[in-house]
Design a protein that fits this description.
The chain is an alpha/beta fold. The protein has 15 helices and 13 strands. It has helices spanning 22-38, 60-64, 68-85, 98-106, 125-130, 163-173, 184-192, 216-225, 244-253, 277-283, 295-303, 325-332, 336-339, 350-361, 365-383, and strands at residues 10-14, 43-50, 88-94, 112-115, 145-151, 178-181, 201-203, 233-237, 258-261, 270-271, 289-292, 308-311, 340-341. The chain has a seven-stranded parallel beta sheet, sandwiched between helices. Strands 10-9-8-11-12-13 form a six-stranded parallel beta sheet, with helices on both faces. Strand 1 (10-14), helix 1 and strand 2 (43-50) form a beta-alpha-beta unit. Helix 1 crosses helix 10 and helix 8 crosses helix 10. The radius of gyration is 21 Å and the shape is globular.
Length: 391
């Protein structure tokens, strides 16, 4: 139980923070930075809840490319960064049981809980198996003010849910003061629930738009690796199962580009596997083009003013209505016509080659700068509505 200064309010951030994923870390870090600046005299912490135990589990890509130890070092590095940069609640729980998680959070006596960012509203297979909803859809009996802040349900559609899940989700959302979601798919889902407080629902940008990039991290890395930033490079950050990645890499290499991968990949000239999230954020600056599967990879390409193509490589990343968080992001920059690649139906990578020429030729740095500022301001405008809730 909370035993701090009675005059100090207690704010909890409920989000993903534990995965060895740079985007996950940076969204949690950005959220903490933004919220803590709103409450400088109060205790702001990440709620130490996980639905699984965290340990090193090498991917098949790490094994096939002989990068097992690099993957392990990366895991250790991430856990150290979490410990050093994210203030976690003193009490913790790891559980898939919604009732246990709810009781744990209720006993922390928060004045305010901020849910998000990331795909925390997404339902995983064990939720469907148990006919439950994630704890991030907070139950009404947790007695504090609640805000959804740039959260996503990924590709979840109301047609995926059982009647009891719909009721649980609706009851949860009707007890939030503000609901800021990150993409069209999530907005569509919550609109379909028929919640009474629809006026509080809006789409807001990801918290990473609110943070500037510190390039000293990546500059130190280049000095250790022999990488020459002046050479032409293309980042290809695609999953191992996306077989067209090899053809895409061969196409750009034949045109004089070095191929950089941020995951184990045998087609790459440089594999930056062990970069920290802070190094990862700046690496895009030194490339002419980024081809990525990642939502935050798209964001950080734009934050570094680099043309980007985002491959939604499987239909599982799109809702039944055809909506995706990736396309929603690109649309907010007016870039979805050529930068969005539907990889789930991609049979011939020449479509990527053709679009890449248009993306690079038509990239408008000034417009991107304006949109970045607009996204930053929209996020900050939303979170500045939070302090009056507990004034």
């Amino acid at each position: 139980l909370w035993t701090g200064d009675l005059h100090m309010r207690k704010i909890g951030i409920l989000t993903y923070f534990w995965a060895d994923n740079p985007g996950t870390f940076l969204q949690a870090y950005s959220t903490y930075r933004a919220i803590s600046q709103l409450f400088p005299e109060d205790r702001v912490e990440l709620i130490n809840y996980k639905h699984r135990y965290v340990f090193y589990k090498p991917s098949l890509g790490h094994i096939l490319t002989g990068k097992f130890m690099e993957g392990y070092k990366r895991h250790v590095q991430f856990q150290g960064l979490i410990h050093d940069n994210l203030p976690l609640s003193r009490h913790r729980i790891t559980s898939r049981d919604r009732l246990s998680a709810s009781d744990y959070i209720r006993r922390q006596n928060y004045d305010l809980i901020v849910v998000g960012s990331d795909t925390v509203l997404q339902m995983l297979p064990f939720h469907f198996k148990k006919n439950e909803v994630p704890i991030y859809w907070l139950p009404a009996n947790i007695p504090c003010r609640k805000v959804v802040c740039a959260a996503s349900s990924s590709a979840l559609s109301i047609r995926d849910l059982t009647e009891s899940q719909i009721i649980e989700c609706r009851n949860s959302m009707e007890h939030y003061d503000f609901i800021g979601v990150r993409d069209d798919a999530t907005y569509s889902l919550l609109s379909s629930l028929g919640i009474r407080n629809m006026s509080s629902l809006e789409i807001i940008p990801d918290p990473t738009f609110s943070m500037d990039i510190d390039y000293s991290h990546i500059e130190n890395l280049f000095g250790k690796t022999g990488f020459e930033p002046d050479e032409k490079s293309v980042v290809i950050d695609l999953p191992r199962r996306f077989t067209a990645a090899h053809q895409i890499a061969d196409h750009f290499r034949a045109r004089g580009y070095r191929i950089i991968s941020l995951v184990p990949a045998d087609y790459a000239d440089y594999c930056f596997i062990n970069v920290s999230p802070f190094e990862w954020a700046g690496i895009y600056r030194y490339c002419e083009l980024v081809i990525t599967q990642r939502f935050h990879g798209t964001i950080y390409s734009l934050k570094n003013f680099v043309p980007v193509m985002t491959v939604v490589w499987t239909d599982e990343l799109k809702s039944r209505e055809g909506l995706s968080k990736h396309r929603s992001l690109l649309k907010s920059f007016g870039m979805d016509e050529f930068s969005y690649i539907d990889g789930g139906s991609l049979k011939d990578p020449r479509h990527v080659f053709t679009n890449s020429e248009k993306v690079m030729a038509e990239f408008d740095r000034d417009t991107v700068i304006k949109n970045l500022e607009r996204h930053r301001n929209a996020y900050l405008e939303f979170i500045h509505k939070i302090p009056p809730l507990i004034s």
